[in-house]
């Protein structure tokens, strides 16, 4: 435990100091940390799922508080919670199915399974179905199962996980180790998914980029890099304009990488985005986070590009791995989900210190320097999201997000 | 002419659109002519119908009446200039009276009716056409017919010029040619209308006619003045040097000469009309230009394909070579040379500064100029100026405003009276240049500041992009008069001109917020007004300005923040522009490549040689008119849709002819 505690603290410190950059790296670190938390968490015999959930939540709260702007942390924590809930449920249903029918089929047989169970062992099945309905998207099947579900409402509202674990505290010894094992399996799967999302997204490049295309991008995103290179590898020849992304000049890094991979790249200033957009066929950016309403938080300057693209009817495509999908709806994201960086990136203090009048007691400082990190693009400006599960409309994002998270975890 | 002329001469600025009553002098009831509402048209027609009448009852000289089916070629035929001296004298009297009522402020602003004499617009042309062809009829319909005659005095000259233009098929003379064509087209219907019912639709034509009449009066007066050069003093230099004939034309020309003259006038015109930007993907022309060029440019290795039509040269290597040449060159005057180098090195930035520097250099060059023996001052000086201009273009492509200024200068040269001695001509030109600087740039800025400051209220947050000296003046002035506001300065790489503005404002105690253009949508939420400078505004309302302006305007538009553009009217241009690609200027790509990145400094060095990597440093972009709420100019505050009106009504009179 102490060593987990110390790694958590270390990671929290890193997040606080913004040592880890990029949502993918953060997500990876977070999920690895959570894995170690889970593996070292001593599980009580009863209620092991809720114990795991509590442990993960406790760590997750620290992490989110360390960098509330890095939404990927919260996303990953929620994903892990979701995994725990799901594994617990599948174990519960499997156990129950084993009890009644000796049919230890894996949980993916779901609905028939559920029905059978529902008739035979009513109370447990109701609990299971209730828990399931909180996890699963409402399918036609679950909607039709109206009566048992309504009966189970009190259970769901209290806590699905608790009710189940209570209901089958009998055969814990066999399940105990299995749950943890399954959860860690699931988390490993998540790690793979996060690290592999580039390839998943890049595979779709060929469907979106045609010959002689002119593509504008800004910021430095590994996803975008892989996406473009994938198209390049498929023998498509196209040109890329990269906005340099002052004051961090991420665009230069991206341009360097692109050129190294043999793409025809032109670096432009950020101010030339509007001028060039009329000759651009597609704007492709990597998101920092995608909100549930389909809005995008991206590198600073993205909103400008999106507006210009809208004005010129240029498709504005956002690439986002699933770990960037945030189940929250933004409120005033330009300010609340933003981060102001050091003014020194814009203006050297020495350059203006001579003309600042420090002695005058007017109270307010005469000179402010604003250097935000992120920009919010409203969903109306986005043409398409490309995630590792395919292309989606902005209006569909909330639904996609519901697949990844359970409703209980939205507020942490 | 008559008492009514007095009030006519008074208004200081012919204002268009919304204006503030900051000028102490009350606007005279004279109708605003630029916004030709029907009511105004009617009122303005009334002074016309009688104002010339009192004056010109003297024997009416009617130019040979023509068929309205006159085509362009036949118009090239000579038209004898009527000019009985009695009539002239009367006109001269008229002029002196006019000069007496002349208000210096008028001339400074350059927009008062008295100085509106030099206008060549398609309308005046067409009107003129109709008057010539139908003057007999018209003079019958007008009891006095006087003003027709005064137009007739002017007729031959103008017709020749027009014909010269219209008959040429040179595509470069877009505007003038267009006017020539529209003349031929519009002559007929308008004439028919006129003859049918004069009270109905004549008002506009009549207004023009009155202008025409004034102009002719002045022309005649000056003609006389130049005739009697010995006794009478020269016309005030602060007026556009108005003069009946280009030098080689004697007042009485015979028909055989005039055709040749038309050709030569045409040639002159062609030289004068600003060249369209050279398209640098046109190999042969580039080669030709290179052979002539003074500045040795090496083409940059890594050209951006989209901008092959623009010059893309290596930077920084010409300067030492050029500055060593400064004493050996004889073709380029040293003052011009110096300005050219300053442009090349970027020491002078900002359109107004560049334009003023260029004009001062020309002044100096003209002062030092001596006409070579056996050569004509006008021709030779124009050629010289052309050489200077092409040198300046080699150093850095001209801005639109500089093009306008050069056009103005060449017109001044062409309008020089023949019989002016060389020192006199030079003095006149220099004073004209000085007047241009004073009233078109410096005074215009002051007027703009006066207008714009009325749009700043207490508690506002104003956004300024980059550096514009007009915007700076506005902000400082508003601060001076005690307005409480905050300024957001948005800056962009690579020039970071906003820092200059920031320094100046902060030093003066303004409350400033500084940010980069990327953050403009972050900061726009708190901004209440956007003030932008301009390099030029085209007649379709497109704002051509420092790159990034369009972004700022677009974001402001998205946030429903009004965008106010401050631009002197001399920067208006009759071209049209849709995008930022076709007409632009490329800056030094290395300025972009060199990034203050802390971790990888060698980035640009290693990547320089890669064929696949280019750096594009656009200097300008064009903002669509829909993003602009208002343009503050020296003629008032106008919507972008009024730009062509300003260009047509006010600019031709000073620049062309």
TrEMBL record, chain A:
- Region span, Disordered: 146-173
Q: InterPro entries annotated for this entry? A: eIF2B_beta_subunit, IF-2B-related, IF_2B-like_C, NagB/RpiA_transferase-like
Q: Which UniProt keywords apply?
A: Cytoplasm, Initiation factor, Protein biosynthesis
Location(s) in or outside the cell: Cytoplasm, Cytosol
Q: Which residues cross the membrane?
A: none
Main location, first listed in the record: cytoplasm
State the family named in the UniProt similarity comment for this chain.
Belongs to the eIF-2B alpha/beta/delta subunits family.
- Kindly state the subunit structure of this protein: Component of the translation initiation factor 2B (eIF2B) complex which is a heterodecamer of two sets of five different subunits: alpha, beta, gamma, delta and epsilon. Subunits alpha, beta and delta comprise a regulatory subcomplex and subunits epsilon and gamma comprise a catalytic subcomplex. Within the complex, the hexameric regulatory complex resides at the center, with the two heterodimeric catalytic subcomplexes bound on opposite sides.
Specify the protein name: Translation initiation factor eIF2B subunit beta
Native organism taxonomy: Eukaryota, Viridiplantae, Streptophyta, Embryophyta, Tracheophyta
UniProtKB/TrEMBL annotation, chain B:
Q: Where is the sequence biased in composition, kind Low complexity?
A: 44-53, 211-223
Spans annotated as Disordered: 1-129, 153-296
Q: Membrane-spanning regions, if any?
A: none
| Any single Pfam family the record assigns to this protein | IF-2B
Regions of compositional bias (Polar residues) in chain numbering:
109-119
Report biased composition (Basic and acidic residues) as residue ranges: 189-210, 224-234, 258-272
* Taxonomy, superkingdom: Eukaryota
Q: Which family does it belong to?
A: Belongs to the eIF-2B alpha/beta/delta subunits family.
Could you identify this protein by its name? Translation initiation factor eIF2B subunit delta
The root-end lineage is:
Eukaryota, Viridiplantae, Streptophyta, Embryophyta, Tracheophyta
């Amino acid at each position: 435990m102490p060593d987990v505690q110390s790694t958590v603290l270390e990671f929290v410190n890193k997040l606080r100091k913004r040592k880890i950059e990029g949502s993918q790296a953060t997500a990876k670190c977070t999920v690895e940390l959570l894995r170690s938390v889970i593996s070292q968490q001593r599980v009580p015999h009863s209620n092991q799922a809720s114990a795991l959930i509590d442990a993960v939540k406790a760590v997750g709260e620290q992490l989110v508080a360390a960098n509330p702007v890095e939404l990927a942390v919260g996303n990953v924590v929620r994903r892990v919670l979701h995994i725990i809930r799901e594994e617990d449920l599948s174990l519960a249903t499997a156990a129950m199915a084993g009890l009644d029918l000796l049919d230890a089929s894996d949980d993916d047989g779901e609905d028939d399974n559920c029905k059978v169970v529902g008739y035979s062992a009513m109370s447990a099945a109701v609990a299971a179905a209730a828990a399931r309905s909180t996890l699963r998207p409402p399918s036609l099947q679950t909607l039709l199962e109206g009566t048992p579900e309504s009966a189970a409402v009190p259970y769901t509202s209290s806590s699905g996980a608790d009710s189940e674990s209570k209901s089958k505290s009998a055969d814990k010894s066999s399940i105990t180790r299995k749950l943890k094992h399954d959860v860690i399996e699931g988390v490993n799967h998540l790690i793979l998914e996060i690290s592999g999302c580039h390839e998943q997204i890049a595979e779709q490049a060929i469907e979106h980029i045609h010959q002689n295309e002119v593509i504008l991008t800004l910021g430095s995103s590994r996803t975008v890099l892989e996406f473009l290179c994938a198209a390049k590898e498929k023998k498509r020849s196209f040109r890329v304009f990269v906005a340099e992304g002052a004051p961090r000049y991420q665009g230069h890094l991206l341009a360097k990488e692109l050129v190294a991979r043999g793409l025809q790249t032109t670096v432009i200033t950020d101010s030339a985005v509007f001028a060039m957009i009329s000759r651009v066929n597609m704007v492709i950016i990597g998101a920092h986070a995608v909100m549930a309403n389909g809005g995008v938080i991206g590198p600073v300057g993205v909103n400008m590009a999106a507006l210009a693209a809208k004005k010129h009817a240029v498709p504005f495509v956002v690439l986002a791995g699933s770990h960037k999908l945030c189940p929250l709806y933004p409120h005033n994201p330009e300010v609340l989900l933003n981060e102001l960086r050091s003014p020194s990136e814009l203006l050297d203090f020495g350059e203006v210190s001579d003309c600042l009048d420090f002695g005058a007691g007017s109270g307010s400082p005469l000179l402010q320097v604003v250097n935000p990190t992120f920009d919010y693009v409203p969903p109306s400006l986005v043409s398409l999201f490309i995630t590792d599960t395919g292309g989606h409309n902005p209006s569909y994002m909330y639904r996609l997000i519901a697949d990844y998270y359970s409703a209980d975890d939205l507020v942490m | 002419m008559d008492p009514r002329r007095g009030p006519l001469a008074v208004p200081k600025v012919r204002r268009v659109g919304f204006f503030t009553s900051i000028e102490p002098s009350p606007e005279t009831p004279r109708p605003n002519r630029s916004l030709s509402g029907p009511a105004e048209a009617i009122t303005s027609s009334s002074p016309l119908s009688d104002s010339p009448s009192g004056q010109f009852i003297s024997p009416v000289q009617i130019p040979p009446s023509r068929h309205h089916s006159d085509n362009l070629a036949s118009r090239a035929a000579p038209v004898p200039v009527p000019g009985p001296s009695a009539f002239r004298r009367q006109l001269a009297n008229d002029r002196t009276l006019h000069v007496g009522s002349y208000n210096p402020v008028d001339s400074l602003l350059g927009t008062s009716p008295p100085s509106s004499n030099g206008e060549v617009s398609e309308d005046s042309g067409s009107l003129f056409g109709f008057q010539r062809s139908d003057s007999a009829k018209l003079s019958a319909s007008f009891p006095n017919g006087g003003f027709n005659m005064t137009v007739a005095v002017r007729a031959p000259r103008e017709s020749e010029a027009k014909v010269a233009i219209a008959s040429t098929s040179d595509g470069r003379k877009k505007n003038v040619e267009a006017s020539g064509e529209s003349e031929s087209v519009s002559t007929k219907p308008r004439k028919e209308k006129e003859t049918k019912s004069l009270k109905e639709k004549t008002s506009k034509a009549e207004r023009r006619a009155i202008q025409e009449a004034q102009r002719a009066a002045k022309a005649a007066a000056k003609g006389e003045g130049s005739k009697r050069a010995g006794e009478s003093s020269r016309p005030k230099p602060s007026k556009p040097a108005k003069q009946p004939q280009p030098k080689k034309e004697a007042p009485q020309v015979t028909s055989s000469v005039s055709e040749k003259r038309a050709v030569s006038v045409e040639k002159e015109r062609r030289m004068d009309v600003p060249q369209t930007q050279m398209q640098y993907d046109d190999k042969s022309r580039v080669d030709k230009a290179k052979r002539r060029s003074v500045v040795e440019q090496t083409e940059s290795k890594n050209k951006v394909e989209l901008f092959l039509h623009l010059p893309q040269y290596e930077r920084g290597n010409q300067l030492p070579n050029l500055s060593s040449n400064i004493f050996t060159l004889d073709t380029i005057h040293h003052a011009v040379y110096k300005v050219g180098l300053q442009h090349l090195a970027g020491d002078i930035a900002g359109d107004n500064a560049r334009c003023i520097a260029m004009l001062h250099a020309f002044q100096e060059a003209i002062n030092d100029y001596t006409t070579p023996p056996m050569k004509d001052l006008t021709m030779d000086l124009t050629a010289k100026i052309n050489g200077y201009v092409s040198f300046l273009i080699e150093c850095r492509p001209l801005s639109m405003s500089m093009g306008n200024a050069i056009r103005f200068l060449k017109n001044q040269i062409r309008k020089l009276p023949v019989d002016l001695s060389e020192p006199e001509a030079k003095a006149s030109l220099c004073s004209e240049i000085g007047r241009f600087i004073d009233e078109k740039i410096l005074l215009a800025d002051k007027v703009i500041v006066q207008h714009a400051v009325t749009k700043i209220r207490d508690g506002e947050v104003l956004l300024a992009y980059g550096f514009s000296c007009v915007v700076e003046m506005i902000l400082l002035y508003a601060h001076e008069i005690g307005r409480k506001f905050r300024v957001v300065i948005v800056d962009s790489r690579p020039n970071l001109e906003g820092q200059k503005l920031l320094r100046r404002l902060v030093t003066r105690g303004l409350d400033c917020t500084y940010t980069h253009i990327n953050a403009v949508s972050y900061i726009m939420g708190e901004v209440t007004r956007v003030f932008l400078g301009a390099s030029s505004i085209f007649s379709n309302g497109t704002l051509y300005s420092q790159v990034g302006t369009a972004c700022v305007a677009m974001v402001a538009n998205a946030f429903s923040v009004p965008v106010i553009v401050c631009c002197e009217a001399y920067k208006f241009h009759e071209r049209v522009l849709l995008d930022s690609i076709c007409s632009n200027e490329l800056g030094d790509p290395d300025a972009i490549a060199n990034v203050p990145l802390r971790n990888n400094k060698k980035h640009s060095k290693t990547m320089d040689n890669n064929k696949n990597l280019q750096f594009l440093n656009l200097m300008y972009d064009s903002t669509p008119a829909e993003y602009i709420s208002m343009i503050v100019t020296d003629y008032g505050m106008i919507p972008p849709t009024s730009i062509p009106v300003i260009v047509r009504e006010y600019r031709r009179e000073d620049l062309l002819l």
